[in-house]
Amino acid sequence: MWSAIGDTLPLAVGLALSPVALATAVMLLLGSRGRLKTALFGLGWFVVLLVITAIAAAIVDVADDDAPEATTDGVDILLLVIAVLFAVLAMVAWRKRPKEGDEEKPSILDRLDGLSVWGALAMGVAQGVIVIKNIPLAVAAGARLGEADLDTAQLVVGLLVFALVAASGVIVPLVLAVLGGERAAPTLARFRDWLSYNMTTISIVVLVVLSAYFFGQGIGILD
C-alpha cells in the first residue's frame, strides 16, 4: 500500500503547487470571512480531486482484474501521453509568459471580489476541474492506485492521503492564518504579491518536472 501511495505523492505535490489555487486561498484569507471561505474552497478542491481519483482507480482496478498485462501497458501509455501534454503546456506557458515585472492575475481570480461563502465552495470545485493539469494528475494517481491490487480499506487510505496532500496548498496557508491570527496578514499579503509576479514561472517549473516524472514512469512499457 505504502509503495502505491508513494507513487502518487509527486502527483499530489504537483496539485498542491497549483499557483491559481494558492493565490485563490491567500486572496480569500485576506478578505472578509476569509478563513471560512478558504476552508470551503479547500473542501471543494479536495472533494473534486478525490472523486476524480477514485473513479480512475475503480476503472483501472476492474480492468486489472480482467487483463492485468494489458492494463499495465495501458497505464504506461497514459503516463507517456500526460508527459507529452505537460511538456507542450510548459512550452506554451513559456511562449506566453508576461514581460519581466508584469503582474500576473488569471481571470478566474477576478471573481473573488464579493464571493459568498458558498461561492467559495463552488470555486474550489470549479478550479479542481478547470485547472488544466488537475484531471490528468488525478487520473494518473487513480491509475497507479487502481493497478496496485489494494483491498478496499487500503484503497480508501491511499485516496485520502493523495487528496489531502493535493489540497495542502490550500490547507497550509489556512493553518498559518489560524495560528498566526492578525500577525499572519502581512506575510500572506507578501506571499500574494510574490505569487502575482511569479505565477507563470512556478507553473512552467512544475509542468517540466511533472513531464519528466511521467516520462520516467511511462517508459516502463519498453521493458
Can you offer a commentary on this structure?
The protein has 223 residues and is an all-alpha fold. The chain is built from 9 helices and no strands. It has helices at residues 2-16, 19-29, 34-66, 68-95, 117-130, 134-146, 152-166, 168-180, 184-218. The mean pLDDT is 84.
What's the β-strand tally? 0
Please write the string of helix (H) and strand (E) elements: HHHHHHHHH
State the helicity in percent bands: over 70%
Largest pleated sheet:
none
Layout of helices and strands:
Elements: H1 2-16, H2 19-29, H3 34-66, H4 68-95, H5 117-130, H6 134-146, H7 152-166, H8 168-180, H9 184-218
Helix pairs in contact: 1-6, 1-7, 2-3, 2-8, 2-9, 3-4, 3-5, 3-6, 3-7, 3-8, 4-6, 4-9, 6-7
